[in-house]
Every structure is written in structure tokens, then in C-alpha cells.
Amino acid sequence: MTPPVRGESTGLFKKLFADHYHETTMSPQDAANSRPELVLDELDEKLDAFNALRKSDSKAADRILEQVGATDEVDRQIVLELASKRPLGHPDKFRSAHAGAMRALEVLDRNGSRGVKVRSLGPFTPIAAYLVQQVVHFIVKSHLRNVLNNITNLYNRREAACLPGAAERRDLSVARVHAERVGPGYRGNPLGFPTFLLGGAFLSTVVGGLQGLIVGFIDSVFGQVVLVAILFGVLVGMSWAVLKGAAIARRRIKLTVEQPLEALYQTVGRCGSPPGDQARIFALLAMVLLAVTWIVVPIALGVSLFFGQ
After folding, report:
1. How does DSSP classify residue 195?
2. pTM of the prediction?
3. What residues contact residue 155 under an 8 Å CB cut-off, 6+ apart?
4. Is the pLDDT of residue 144 over 80?
């Protein structure tokens, strides 16, 4: 068999790979026009149109919202955050806002539960001050831990959302490293006393002593009245301590970190609000405990006296 000459071989090769030659010799514009439509292109087009029209033409923006399936205010907020593609809303202010937030967290950690004072309660003043301080300490430490976790996650996610070579990537990376380094210092024990006090042996000793005390009082009407009065006083005192501690913690958190955190989240942009503290929850629990004390304890005393006669 006679082998094909050079020209015939080249022509045969071109025929076999005609499609490949066609694709590689097309201009970039022709290649873009010939490729199938991508979901990414369609999504970018809708989000860009919404971002451009949301202030100038609300009706047109609403039509785009309907196209993407948004039906209420939360859906609108979701689309708004998706349309904001910049990793930082105000990159020129981010470094300053980050530094201010880190400084505010440091100040709160050092002073949040320090120097708690209560009004004079006679011999019970030191006990009351200690209980209030423990409530403040727990709320402040829990808030610091929650805030640092939230900030670290936010920086990680925005850094991941940066395009390669984006100017914001370096600032976010440095800020994320800062947050990760200081994080362990804010994630310690939120309780103001050693955790072994909550262990089984210690609690068993305390419960055993209380049981012996109750058995000694419950045999007489007078003992029952004294026992209920003590229980009433303890529960009222606990409610007051929790309510007082929650108020102090809320005031110091608001004074120290609320505005710096708001400034940081505003600078990052489209990332929701900073995490709240637990002061309101503690205050609500204190009021519920106080209400239950005023209702349940007198009823329990009346029932005990009625059946004891």
C-alpha cells in the first residue's frame, strides 16, 4: 500500500479534527456567542439588574424579585445580600473598625464584671454582691465568646468569597488571623468559680445536708413555716441577684462593645446585626422565678398546714 503524500495526510487530519479546528480558530466573541447559556450568567444578570434598579425603579426591581421567587421582606433582604458581591462594603474603613472592635472586646473582658456594688443589705451584703457578680461574669463571658465566634466565622466566609487577587483578601486574612489568635482567651470558663463545685461529690454532700435539715424541720408546724420562709427568701434573693446582674451586664456591654461592633458589621456590609447578649433572657427568667415564688410558695405552705392539722 502506497503511503499518502504529505499534502494528503494533512488534509485527512483536518477532516478528522474539523470541529476542533473550528473551535480553536474562532474569535473570543464568536466563542462566547456559541457556548450554551450558563446559570451563572443568568443569575449574575438578574442580580446586577436588581442592584441597579432597586433605588431608581422599585417596580422593575419588584419584577426581578418575582422572577427569582422572592415574596416577602426577608426574601428581599436575601436577594439584596446576594446582589452585593463586594466582600467588604467599606474596605477603606475596615482596618479601623476591626481594630476598634478588638479593643472594645479587650476592655469588656477586663472590666465587665469588675467592681460590682449593691446597696447595703446588712450581713447579707457580701453574699448578695458575690451572687450579682457571678451573674454579670457569666453574661459578659458568654457574650465575648459568642461575639468572637461570630466575627471569626464572618471573616472566614468573606475571605472565601473574595475573588483571586482581590484587594480585600489580605485585610480579611489578617483580621481573621487576629480573631483566631485572641479567641481562646475569650473562650474560658464563663462561671466565676471552679467547675469542680458542680461535680457529683460536692453536690451530693450539699443535697445530703439539705435533706437532713428539711427532715428536722418538717416534723412540726413551726418548722414547716420556718422552712418555707427560708425557701421564700432564698428564691426572692436569687431572683433579685439575677435581675440586678443582668441589668449591670447589659449596661456595661452596651457601653463598651455595642457601638464598635455595630460599626464593624456596617463596614463589612450586608452581614446582619452583631450577636446580642443574654441579659434580657436572664432578666425574663428572674421575673418568672419571682412570680412563681410569690404564687407557688404560699400555696405550698397553705397545703402543708392544712394537711398537717
Report:
1. G
2. 0.74
3. 172, 175, 176, 179
4. yes
Residue linked to cell 443535697 = 207
Q: pLDDT, tens digit, for every residue of 206-246?
A: 445 545 555 555 566 666 677 777 878 888 889 999 999 99
The DSSP secondary structure of 39-108, one letter per residue, reads: HHHHHHHHHHHHHHHTTT-HHHHHHHHHHHT--SHHHHHHHHHHH---S-SSHHHHHHHHHHHHHHHHHH
Count CB neighbours of 104 within 10 A.
21
**Average pLDDT score, the chain:** 78
Residue-level length of the chain: 309
Comparing 71-75, 189-193, 194-198, the range with the smallest average pLDDT is 194-198
| Contact (CB, 8 A) for 269 and 84 | yes
Average pLDDT over residues 152-174: 94
Distance CA 41, CA 245 (A): 54
d(CA 120, CA 126) in angstroms, rounded, equals 9
* 65/232 Cα distance (integer angstroms): 58
> What nine digits make up the cell of 55?
433605588
C-alpha cell at 138: 457569666
> What are the cell numbers at 227?
422552712
Q: How far apart are CA 134 and CA 189, in angstroms?
A: 12
Task: Give rounded-to-5 percent helix, strand, coil for the chain.
Answer: 80, 0, 20
Cβ atoms of 125 and 306 within 8 Å: the answer is no
The candidate with the shortest Cα–Cα distance to 105, out of 76, 133, 144, 68, is: 144
Closest residue by Cα to residue 253 from 175, 142, 150: 142
Residue 298 has pLDDT above 80, yes or no: no
